[in-house]
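Researcher: Sequence recovery benchmark, item below. Answer with residues only.
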């Protein structure tokens, strides 16, 4: 369904360090990093798409988080949701919702919410029941 997601960042080096620590916890590996061009991308091993990209805005303007926009990243289990949320907070994220069940979405939805260093809202979630 998706080709890629691109999040705008204001300070590429700071954002790269943040995502380079966070995304491997979700099984994503660095596909490329071009610091001179201020962008980088991650992928799931064995899959060319979708890509998770960060970069400075192409128009040269400041990066701005959108109100109502969110990127939800799939975790393989609830423990990963917990670990990624805790890591995000240690890396400087702002908490937007602690890990837990959200049965109003569906009975097995387990998610956590936070904002990255540029204010982009992220979710880490698992849709599977406890095994």
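Model:
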């Amino acid at each position: 369904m998706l080709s890629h997601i691109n999040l705008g960042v204001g300070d590429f080096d700071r954002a790269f360090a943040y995502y380079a620590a966070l995304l491997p916890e979700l099984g994503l590996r660095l596909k490329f990093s071009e610091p001179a061009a201020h962008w980088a991308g991650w992928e799931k091993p064995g899959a060319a798409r979708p890509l998770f990209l960060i970069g400075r805005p192409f128009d040269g303007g400041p990066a701005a988080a959108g109100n109502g926009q969110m990127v939800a990243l799939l975790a393989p289990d609830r423990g990963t949701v917990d670990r990624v949320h805790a890591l995000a907070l240690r890396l400087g994220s702002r908490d937007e919702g602690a890990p837990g069940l959200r049965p109003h979405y569906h009975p097995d939805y387990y998610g956590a919410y936070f904002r990255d260093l540029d204010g982009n809202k992220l979710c880490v979630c698992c849709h599977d029941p406890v095994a």
